[in-house]
Amino acid sequence: MSVKLGPNRYGKAETRLVRVVRDGPVHHLKDLNVSTSLSGDMEAAHLTGDNAAVLPTDTQKNTAYALAARHGVGQIEEFALLLARHFVESQPTIHHARVQIEEFAWNRRGPHSFVRDGSEVRTCVVHHDADGRATVVSGLTDLVVLNSAGSEFHGYLVDEYTTLRPTDDRILATSVTARWRHTGTAVSSYGTSYDEVRRSLLEAFADTHSLSLQQTLYAMGERALTACPEICEVRLTLPNRHHFPVDLSPFGLDNDNEVFHVADRPYGLIEGAVLREDAPDAGFAWE
Ligand SMILES: O=c1[nH]c(=O)c2[nH]c(=O)[nH]c2[nH]1
Fold first, then answer.
1. Are residues 145 and 286 in the same domain?
2. Would residue 12 show up in a list of annotated catalytic residues for this protein?
């Protein structure tokens, strides 16, 4: 039997890194989860156990800490680009670096006191290769939203297995995962574009009179692309957090769409991409 090595990469996943900047008594916090993944001349490592081309995952973790100390941590996209470029440019055996960062937001309570409220997480995935090509995908996850009006679902296919009743007034709730691809890496401010995209997603969710979560997804992507000229593609993952009216008739009570059972699972999972007509090829951006 003849076999060969296929695509491979390796790295250190989920290096938790907190950086404190002390501005006198006022402190600033960056709380990150950094995952690095490298690929390159790794044939020998897999085939014979020769590790001469391997930059240890332990070193990758240390590099995240060291570059955070040396350069500070600004926007996560810039820190990810710095790390990715470092691995590719410092090691000839490494041809491609992928750096993924999650950022946990802390809200200030005092000069050096913070509170984490909400589960929302800011994300980015950066790729950098030995030819100097780089891509940046920014995003957010666990942004939980709900509309208690303005959502309908009817007109769908009905077959012998369909029991769902059409509705013209339901709760629409989801936990948004959104990722958006920047057209280039010369972005004036990743922080500003993050705020713009986040605001557009929330506005579109709230403003759209929804005939389905699919329609809301498209409206959210379209609004983000309209608001932010530096991005060319938005990918959204929207789990449908079903709210079912509880049947209160056994207790002699009406339920005029006021009391709901929130189903945990199964849940509808609506996923889609919205792109500019002239979006350039994504290359390795989504890998
Ligand atoms: O917005 C929705 N889209 C669906 O495709 C779907 N399917 C379903 O059962 N409920 C819903 N809601």
1. yes
2. yes
